[in-house]
């Protein structure tokens, strides 16, 4: 029996692309596991290695 024109087989011609992650638009992002990540930029050669303040005023979107 000939196949009808325009009818596709179920699932054979459908390709599912892997989900693409968008690049973070700000310093706060979510990684592949769902964990929150924060980008911290420090001055080169700084003596102290600590985050001193994480507020909406400091961490801008």
From TrEMBL:
Q: What are the GO cellular component annotations? A: cytoplasm
User: Region Disordered: start and end of each range?
Assistant: 1-25
Q: Its domain of life?
A: Eukaryota
| Family annotation (InterPro entries) | DUF167 (IPR003746)
> PANTHER family under this entry?
UPF0235 PROTEIN C15ORF40 (PTHR13420)
Name this polypeptide is given = Uncharacterized protein
This protein's species is: Ursus americanus
């Amino acid at each position: 029996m000939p196949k009808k024109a325009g009818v596709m087989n179920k699932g054979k011609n459908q390709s599912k692309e892997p989900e693409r992650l968008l690049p973070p638009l700000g310093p706060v992002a979510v990684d592949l596991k769902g964990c929150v990540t924060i980008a911290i930029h420090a001055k080169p050669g700084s003596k102290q290695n600590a985050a001193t303040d994480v507020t909406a005023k400091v961490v801008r979107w």
